[in-house]
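Why should sequence recovery work at all? Because a backbone constrains its sequence more than one might expect. Tight turns favour small or flexible residues, buried strands favour hydrophobic ones, and helices have their own preferences. The token representation captures these environments compactly. In the example below, the structure is given first.
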């Protein structure tokens, strides 16, 4: 039986379906959407962009990751990013106009000392 995971913002009532929880010793170690022939999540650029935008959008909010058996009916009714209901929003619409897509390298969107680049870390 597959058990799925969700990234949730309880303040904004938005959720992102993470896919099947891959488990070892009864604990999730990763999430995966699709069959074993499909790329892992970390190798899917658009999904990564959505996750990073979600984290930025919901900074300071009550966010968590839950498995489907931990989700309430109210949480299942939240707007799903990437969902297919009328109230949901597609990945493309969610990312449209997001300045985070232009950050990095020589991008003028990143302000010095604000982008969080702390450089090489020493121990």
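From this structural description, the recovered sequence reads:
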């Amino acid at each position: 039986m597959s058990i799925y995971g969700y990234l949730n913002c309880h303040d904004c009532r938005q959720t992102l379906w993470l896919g099947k929880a891959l488990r070892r010793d009864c604990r999730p170690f990763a999430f995966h959407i699709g069959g074993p022939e499909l790329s892992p999540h970390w190798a899917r650029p658009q999904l990564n962009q959505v996750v990073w935008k979600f984290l930025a959008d919901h900074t300071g909010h009550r966010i968590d990751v839950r498995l489907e058996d931990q989700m309430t009916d109210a949480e299942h009714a939240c707007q799903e990013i990437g969902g297919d209901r009328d109230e949901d929003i597609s990945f493309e619409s969610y990312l449209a106009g997001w300045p985070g897509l232009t950050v990095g390298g020589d991008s003028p969107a990143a302000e010095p000392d604000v982008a969080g680049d702390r450089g090489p870390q020493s121990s």
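A few observations help interpret the result. The chain has one domain: 4-102.
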